[in-house]
């Protein structure tokens, strides 16, 4: 003959502890804790793939707010979003942002004729350009140097993932702090 009373008695506290734990977890994840508004960093939508500028002032990330997949730039000092006209095109996906030192240049993945390409957005000129229009393989995970001259990314043009370094050239306006000295590139 088996005793069912002790086992049932032990299961009851475990059951109630799970109920209380789950209830407190749901209460702590309530929507009242999320700041909402046009200037709030977080929203009720998915925000992912954060990238911080070298000076720590600007944050770029991918968001699904406003009903579309877009790359947003947030000024952490002024606690507001930065306007980026021409960056997010309709019906295109942007991924993997990377920022230069002051956030002037943003390297990211976008699509061009159905293929992923590395693009670069210049916040000073408010223009975006595709850096890898002729790559045969797939590209992913771009990164930009603090001064904005070099862009690195992964490419599968040889049938495996390799790393490419793209030198944008010595004649571009570098993203450096005001008053900083610039050394000549080595030959």
From TrEMBL:
InterPro entries xref list: 6-blade_b-propeller_TolB-like, WD40
Pfam families: PD40
Highest taxon above the source species: Bacteria
Signal sequence segment: 1-27
Keywords from the named record: Signal
SUPFAM superfamilies: DPP6 N-terminal domain-like
Record field: transmembrane: none
Family listed: Belongs to the TolB family.
Protein name per the record: Biopolymer transporter Tol
Species of origin: Nostoc minutum NIES-26
Taxonomy of the source species: Bacteria, Bacillati, Cyanobacteriota, Cyanophyceae, Nostocales
């Amino acid at each position: 003959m088996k005793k069912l009373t002790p086992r049932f008695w032990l299961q009851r506290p475990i059951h109630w502890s799970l109920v209380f734990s789950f209830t407190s977890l749901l209460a702590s994840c309530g929507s009242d804790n999320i700041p909402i508004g046009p200037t709030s960093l977080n929203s009720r939508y998915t925000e992912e793939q954060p990238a911080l500028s070298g000076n720590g002032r600007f944050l770029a990330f991918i968001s699904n707010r406003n009903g579309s997949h877009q790359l947003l730039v947030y000024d952490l000092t002024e606690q507001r979003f930065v306007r980026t006209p021409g960056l997010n095109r309709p019906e295109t996906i942007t991924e993997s942002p990377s920022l230069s030192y002051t956030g002037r240049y943003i390297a990211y993945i976008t699509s061009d004729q159905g293929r992923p390409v590395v693009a670069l957005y210049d916040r000073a000129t408010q223009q975006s350009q595709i850096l890898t229009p002729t790559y045969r393989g797939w590209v992913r995970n771009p990164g930009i140097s603090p001064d904005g001259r070099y862009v690195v990314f992964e490419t599968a043009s040889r049938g495996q993932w390799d790393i490419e370094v793209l030198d944008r050239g010595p004649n571009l306006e570098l993203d450096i702090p005001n008053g900083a000295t610039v050394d000549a590139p080595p030959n």
